[in-house]
Design brief:
The complex is a heterodimer of chains A (91) and B (206). The radius of gyration of chain A is 13 Å and the shape is globular. Chain A is built from 5 helices and 2 strands, in the order βααβααα. With 91 residues, chain A is mostly helical. Chain A has a two-stranded parallel sheet. Chain B has 206 residues and is of the alpha/beta class. Chain B has a single domain, classed as NADP-dependent oxidoreductase domain (TIM Barrel, Alpha-Beta Barrel). Chain B has 5 helices and 10 strands. In chain B, the strands form 3 sheets. A 6-stranded parallel beta sheet of chain B has the order 3-4-5-6-7-8. In chain B, strands 1-2 form a two-stranded antiparallel ribbon. In chain B, α1 runs parallel beside α2 and α2 packs across α3. The chains are: A mainly alpha (91), B alpha/beta (206).
């Protein structure tokens, strides 16, 4: 069984334009989209949040990402920008 | 809320919730206690902590105070990445159990294959040693499942021959790339107890 932690790449996905576009189509936030994506991949997902709103929102996942959108998300690569998070990544 | 009640079945037969609540950087005391209490109230049933997060006492207290039966909450903690010999592993585990104040952990993970200040160091021999301690924690019943965190395929491959019980869970950074990317992992059909990455597809030469 795989567990996936830091599903938002330490916050970096929040400003990712392509993820924002897809999330908007499902009327969900970027974090919700990322959690749902990992769930549909069969992983246990471990989001972290401090505010009650975010704790609640991260569990509001009653939508299904289409096969086409899953393929788009699968194909996404880490960008150089994301390398900034690398030294911060292991926890 | 439906997802929060969903679960997978681990190789030990236990149900592990699909969504867990991560507690890294939550400060010991009110901040961590209130966040975990909130998460439990909102329906989360998996709480992920670690000795290295320095908040196990608050996690344990929130679990105990929740009024939810212990067997309905899945609690994970982790052996510090710096504990790379048998005696140190036992000492750290006992500290965790005393801090968290619960009779058992549902899952105990080796936090990383190398100490945080020596990322990438070859600790294969040390990891085989501490895995013996992990197996003893499991046998004692104070831990229901054992696994690894931040292990790449090579780290896992070098551990497996020494395992009487293989890691039941592999915990990975969701944003990893390449062979450690969690979404590249698939269950090995011949066993229910561990996963491996799919072979990286070759770039067609043109």
């Amino acid at each position: 069984m795989v567990e996936a932690y830091s599903p938002f790449a330490h916050g970096l996905i929040v400003n990712h334009p392509e993820i924002a576009d897809i999330a908007a189509r499902y009327d969900v936030s970027a974090p919700q989209l990322c959690i749902r994506y990992l769930l549909q991949k069969g992983a246990v997902v471990l989001p972290k949040a401090t505010t009650t709103d975010h704790i609640q929102q991260n569990a509001d996942l009653d939508f299904e990402i289409s096969g086409d959108d899953m393929a788009v998300l699968d194909a996404m690569r880490d960008t150089d920008k994301h390398q900034d998070a690398m030294e911060f990544r292991w926890r | 809320m439906r997802v929060l009640t969903g679960a997978y079945t681990l190789s030990n037969g236990d149900q592990i919730p699909k969504i867990g609540f991560g507690t890294w950087l939550l400060k010991e005391g009110d901040e961590c206690y209130n966040a975990v209490a909130d998460a439990l109230r909102l329906g989360y049933r998996l709480i992920d902590t670690a000795r290295a997060y320095h908040n196990e006492a608050s996690v344990g207290r929130a679990v105990r105070d929740s009024g939810i039966p212990r067997e309905q909450i899945y609690v994970t903690s982790k052996l510090p990445a710096e504990a790379k010999d048998y005696d140190k592993a036992v000492e750290e585990f006992e500290t965790t159990m005393s801090e968290i104040g619960l009779d058992y952990l549902d899952l105990y993970l080796v936090h990383a294959p190398w100490p945080w200040n020596e990322v990438g160091k070859d600790c294969r021999e040390e990891n085989r040693q501490i895995w013996k301690a992990m197996e003893q924690f499991l046998a004692s019943g104070r831990v229901k499942a054992i696994g690894v965190s931040n292990f790449d395929p090579d780290d896992l491959a070098s551990l497996l021959p020494a395992c009487e019980t293989k890691p039941m869970v592999s915990r990975l950074f969701a944003g990893s790339s390449g062979s450690t990317r969690p979404t590249q992992w698939r269950r090995v059909p011949s066993t229910t107890s561990w996963w491996r990455p799919t072979p990286r597809s070759r770039t067609a030469s043109s």
